[in-house]
Specification:
Elements: E1 5-6, H1 7-13, H2 19-27, E2 31-33, E3 36-37, E4 43-44, E5 51-53, E6 56-58, E7 66-71, E8 100-101, E9 110-116, H3 119-126, E10 134-141, H4 146-154, E11 157-158, E12 161-162, E13 167-174, E14 177-184, H5 191-198, E15 202-211, E16 214-215, E17 224-226, H6 229-249, H7 257-270
Parallel strand pairs: 9-15
Antiparallel strand pairs: 1-4, 2-3, 2-5, 5-6, 7-9, 7-17, 8-9, 10-14, 10-15, 11-12, 13-14, 15-16
Helix pairs in contact: 1-2
């Protein structure tokens, strides 16, 4: 961490709480720096200043940890729950440092969930402007038409806003069910389920299989593993590459004519044809 960092950022990077929650804790007088009650806007030097959270010393000299968890269905993506539901926190109790989820998978979904104590990394992966691709294997019922596949690819109006172009292809078909692979470039809440609902499709199963270049592979449900340095580097490189691309191409949702043409071309190229049987 650099010198003179906003206090709420340090708290978030250390896994104490999200930045918004950290601000609430500061406002409530729960945070002290060098024995003095902190205030919103305070900056600290994590290497020199002593920070206390509700009277407990906060060790800011932490090792950055990056893990991949195979979240099973039935678990919520939080570190605690007032209703005493099963949380992913219970699956990573043996991790050396306190980590927190990068983004979300809803309770009925499963698959790859990144967890870390690196706040900057988490923000880079989840920020809407980064368009990090996330790949899902989705089983829908009863069947799907060519028109519905096209609608998923080019975008569907949900709650007054159209979804970004997506990749979609049919993996397999059986009577009453179809397995799709869908790649999203944005992270709206329960997006795939809402897209399918808008098309009259029932989602029977939803599994995230990849984030960027990182794939879930053979990792078993409920298990986790540490990311290699190369995997972390590749994920960070993907963020940097996307940032460079955005600077060159303009705003994805802007009024730039050339950008609109690029998006239209991009969407049409995403649509994967149904396999011939």
């Amino acid at each position: 961490m650099a010198k003179d960092v906003r206090l709420q950022k340090v708290l978030a990077d250390c896994g104490v709480a999200s930045r918004r929650k950290a601000e609430e804790m500061i406002s409530a007088g729960e945070i002290k720096v060098n024995g003095v009650t902190a205030h919103i806007g305070d900056k600290v030097d994590p290497k020199k200043d002593k920070i206390y959270v509700n009277g407990s010393y906060l060790n800011t000299n932490i090792n950055e940890v990056y893990i991949m968890l195979h979240k099973p269905r039935g678990f919520i993506t939080t570190m605690s729950d007032e209703m005493d539901r099963k949380c992913v926190a219970g699956l990573v109790e043996d991790v050396s440092e306190r980590v927190y989820p990068v983004g979300r998978l809803d309770r009925d979904s499963e698959g790859l969930l990144l967890m870390t104590n690196d706040g900057e990394f988490a923000n880079a992966i989840t920020h809407p402007s980064k368009h990090i691709p996330k790949t899902y294997r989705v089983t829908v019922r009863p069947s799907i038409t060519e028109d519905q596949l096209t609608q998923i690819a080019v975008g569907i109006d949900i709650e007054g806003r159209k979804t970004a172009p997506a990749k979609v292809r049919v993996i397999s078909e059986q009577p009453g069910r179809v397995v799709l692979e869908i790649v999203l470039y944005e992270g709206r809440n329960r997006q795939i389920r809402k897209m399918c609902e808008a098309l009259g499709l029932e989602v029977a199963r939803l599994k995230r299989t990849a984030v960027g270049v990182l794939k879930l592979g053979m990792l078993q449900p409920g298990k986790w593993r540490t990311l290699t340095k190369e995997e972390v580097k590749m994920l960070k490189s993907g963020v940097e590459a996307d940032r460079h691309s955005n600077n060159n191409e303009g705003n994805h949702n802007g009024d730039n004519t050339s950008s609109k043409k690029q998006n239209k071309s991009r969407a049409s190229s995403f649509y994967g044809k149904r396999r011939r049987r």
